[in-house]
């Protein structure tokens, strides 16, 4: 508001202050600049950890090199409450987008996981972990929203 980039409407009520603005203008301001088309951040989503790697492809041939890699451990997170799990996954998604900005990544690749109801795992604990505790749809939908806001292309890989 102080920079006068977007119009803002302010409405006061007894206990609340309401701010209204055009979201499309804000999204254009937030988008990352100078992204490299040949850089991809890939995420390996598992119930116990997320594997993250940033790869840069050479445009002239099929060679690539790894720029950054890290593993986020989620083992201790499985014991927490549902709200705590959602908050931590929310923070992890923001960390992933910060990596995209830091390394000028234009594409974010995630696995296209679809669990069929008929398919059951042999182990009861593994079945419970993969189907109930693992919040794949929450992570993917939130990443999709963040990618749309910041101008990073989300790619689902089979």
The arrangement of helices and strands along the chain is: EEHEEEHEHHE
Structural class: alpha/beta
Kindly report how far apart the N and C termini lie: 43 Å
Integer-rounded radius of gyration: 19 Å
Residue stretches low in confidence (pLDDT < 50, at least 5 long) are none
Largest sheet composition:
5 strands, mixed
Q: What percentage of amino acids are in beta strands?
A: 25-35%
Q: Could you state the oligomeric state of the chains shown?
A: single chain
Strands, count: 7
Taking strands numbered 1, 2, ... along the chain, how are they ordered across the largest sheet? 5-4-3-6-7
Number of helices: 4
Shape: flat
Query: What level of helicity do the residues show?
Result: 25-40%
Average pLDDT number: 82
Concise description?
This protein has 158 residues and is of the alpha/beta class.
Question: Would you give an account of this structure?
Answer:
By secondary structure, the chain is an alpha/beta fold. Helix content is 34%, strand content 32%. It has a five-stranded mixed sheet with strand order 5-4-3-6-7, covered by helices on one side. The chain has a two-stranded antiparallel ribbon with strand order 1-2. A hairpin with a 6-residue loop joins strand 4 and strand 5 (64-73). The radius of gyration is 19 Å and the shape is flat.
